[in-house]
Amino acid sequence: MSQRPTRVLTGITTSGTPHLGNYVGAIRPAIAASRAPATESFYFLADLHSLIKAQDPARTQRSTLEIAATWLAAGLEPDKVWFYRQSDVPEITELTWFLTCVAGKGILNRAHAYKAAVDRNRAEGEDDDSGVTAGLFMYPVLMAADILIFNADKVPVGRDQVQHIEMARDFGQRFNHVYGDYFTLPEAVVDENVATLPGLDGRKMSKSYGNTIPLFVPPAELKKLVFSILTDSRAPGEPKLVEGSALFQLYQAFASKDDTAAFARAYADGIGWGEAKQQLFDLVDREIAPMRERYLDLVSRPGDIEDTLRDGARRLREEYAIPLLAQLREAVGLRDLSSVVLGETKADEADDRPPLASFKQYREADGKFHFKLVEGERVLLQSHAFDAPRDAGQAIAALKRGELAVADAPATLGDGVAEAEVRAAIEALAAADAEKAAAKAAQP
Ligand code: TRP
Known about the structure:
Distance between the termini: 54 Å
Structural class: alpha/beta
Order of helices and strands: EHEHHEHHHHEHEHHHHHEEEHEH
Number of strands: 9
Bound molecules: tryptophan
Strand order of the largest sheet: 6-7-8-9
Largest sheet: 4 strands, antiparallel
C-alpha cells in the first residue's frame, strides 16, 4: 500500500521517578528502536493520563520534567523523532470526544483497570463504582486517541497494555465504519526479550514494592543500593548459583555476552558477594554516568526542556494533528455552514426531470481538499486542490449563486464535458435549491 515509513508510537505516563527497571525495560529499547531505518517514531509524555492517578499538581509538574529529561539524557533525539507532551496537542482531546461517541460502553466496562476497581469494591461490599472516576473509565478512549491521531502502525507496550490497543482498534474501526476510512488500525508490539529487572529484594523492580534503584541517584547512593541487593549466605570461595540471583540478572542487563559469561564463571569459581557487587556497580555506573551528567545539566535548564517539548508539539500539530482534525470535523458533520450543499438529499420522487448533478467534497491523501460536480458516475467538473475545506465550500457556494463563472473556477472540466453542460447542471442545481428553500419557507 503506502510507502510511508512505519509509524511507531508509545506513551510514557508521567508519574514517579524513573528507575533502572524502566531504563532497561522501556527507555533503552525504545531509544534503540527509534534509530531503526524506515520508521517514524512518536514518543510522548502522557501527562493527561497521569491526572487519573496523580492529583498533586507540583508532583505532576516535577515528574513531567524528570521523565522528559530522562528520555533526552538517555539519547532520544528530538530532531529525529517526534517528542512531545500529550497536553500540548489539544486535537488529541478533541478526538477523544469523537471516539467517545462511537466507543461501546460495554467494551469499556471490560477494561482490566476498571474491572479490577469494580472487583475490589465488590470484595469490600462497596458500590461497584465507589471511588472510580470517569477518568479511569475513559482511560482507554484517551489512549486510543493518542494512537489513532497519528495513524500509528505499531505500538510497543507492556503486556498489561495490550487490551488497550485492542480497544483502540475497535474504536478506530467503528469510526471508520460510520464516517469513512480515516484511521489506521494499530498493532501492539510486546517485546518478549526485554528483561524484567529484579529489584533489591529479588522481586520485580517496581515502585509499588519499594525495591527500586532510581536511575540517576548520585554514585555513592547507587553504590549503597547495589550493595544492599539481597544475596544468599554463601561465603567467598563457595560456588554461587546464577539461577535466581537478582545480582546476576542485573549484571546481565548491562553486560555484553562475553562479560556475562565471564561473570557466570566467576560465580562458579566462588566470587565473594562483595566483589560481585563491586563489579555490578562499576558496570552499571559506567553506562549510567554520562547520562546522569546530561540529566543533571538538563534539569538545571527546565526552560530548554519546555521549549523542546513545545516545539515538538507545534511541528507535529501543523504536520498531522490540525489537518486531520479538520478532516474529521468535516467527516462527522461539524462543518462550515456556508458550504451546505442542498438538493442532494431525498430527490423529489414523482419527478421526471433529468437527475440533478451534485457537488461532492472530499480530501485527498496529500491532505488537500477538493470538490467535484458529478452526475451519476460522470464527472462534470473537477476542482483543483484547496488547503482548507472551507475554501472548497465557498467556491461551490459561489458557483451556485452565479458569483463565480465556470470558466473562472479553480477547476477543470471532466473528460468530454462542455462548459455549457456544466453551467446548465449548476443552474438546475441552484434552481432546485431555491425551490426547496421556498417550499421550506412556505411551511407554517
Ligand atoms: N497507558 C500507557 C502505560 O501506562 C501509557 C500510554 C498512554 C500509552 N497513551 C499511550 C502507551 C499510547 C502507548 C500508546 O504504559
